[in-house]
Amino acid sequence: DTEVTQTPKHLVMGMTNKKSLKCEQHMGHRAMYWYKQKAKKPPELMFVYSYEKLSINESVPSRFSPECPNSSLLNLHLHALQPEDSALYLCASSQSRVRMNTEAFFGQGTRLTVV
Amino acid sequence: DQQVKQNSPSLSVQEGRISILNCDYTNSMFDYFLWYKKYPAEGPTFLISISSIKDKNEDGRFTVFLNKSAKHLSLHIVPSQPGDSAVYFCAASIIQGAQKLVFGQGTRLTINP
């Protein structure tokens, strides 16, 4: 089982709304990621959690707030977004082994539209 | 500064023939490379990977070749099938506190019957 589940699949929100994206995996992976993908562009890393601790923040604006409540769940809290934040948001997970690279498995993504 | 480059935005191949997708990278600190396949509005699907200590890895119809001195890798698909039509992303991995993947721009592969 290499499944990463993201909800919702689609989200439309106003610029004053607060919403959350959710991601879940049951592969025992201890690294979880948020990526953002704009149309016709490659995925770009936003955040990495390793063993439930934030390890990497790629200078993402504070209107995006990640949270890792436990080893299976990853949330992305959204507040006061701009229309240019509209994109496909991808969650991924991988084994987290010190000094070792492994495959990362992606969810289906949440298509976010900010109006 | 684009550290991972896929210089061919698109590639068209006849069904049954070989598809070769190319990827170049600039950062010699990358030590693990992955290929992903992606359909529109879906997440990338992992295909195959290779460690920098190897020069070839094979999995069924998919083979990845790595030339470290040239900082170049390629994905070979043999034989190509219509279901292989998708966007293929090359990704390079580096450990900086945690594993980071840097993606190339992608190549759209179309398999013609």
Defining traits:
heterodimer, A: 115 residues, mainly beta, 7-stranded mixed β-sheet, 4-stranded antiparallel β-sheet, 11 strands, 0% helix, globular, B: 113 residues, 6-stranded mixed β-sheet, 5-stranded antiparallel β-sheet, 58% strand
Layout of helices and strands, plus pairs?
The complex is a heterodimer of chains A (115) and B (113).
Chain A: E1 4-7, E2 10-13, E3 18-25, E4 31-37, E5 44-50, E6 53-57, E7 64-70, E8 73-79, E9 87-94, E10 105-106, E11 110-114
Parallel strand pairs in A: 2-11
Antiparallel strand pairs in A: 1-3, 3-8, 4-5, 4-9, 5-6, 7-8, 9-10, 9-11
Chain B: E1 4-5, E2 10-14, E3 19-25, E4 32-38, E5 45-51, E6 56-59, E7 62-67, E8 72-77, E9 86-95, E10 99-103, E11 107-112
Parallel strand pairs in B: 2-11
Antiparallel strand pairs in B: 1-3, 3-8, 4-5, 4-9, 6-7, 7-8, 9-10, 9-11
Can you give a write-up of this model?
The complex is a heterodimer of chains A (115) and B (113). Chain A is an all-beta fold and 115 residues long. Chain A has no helices and eleven strands. Chain A has strands spanning 4-7, 10-13, 18-25, 31-37, 44-50, 53-57, 64-70, 73-79, 87-94, 105-106, 110-114. In chain A, the strands form two sheets. In chain A, strands 2, 4, 5, 6, 9, 10 and 11 form a seven-stranded mixed beta sheet that branches. Chain A has a four-stranded antiparallel beta sheet with strand order 1-3-8-7, with no helix packed on it. The mean pLDDT of chain A is 92. Chain B has 113 residues and is mainly beta. In chain B, strands 2, 4, 5, 9, 10 and 11 form a six-stranded mixed beta sheet that branches. In chain B, strands 1-3-8-7-6 form a five-stranded antiparallel beta sheet, with no helix packed on it.
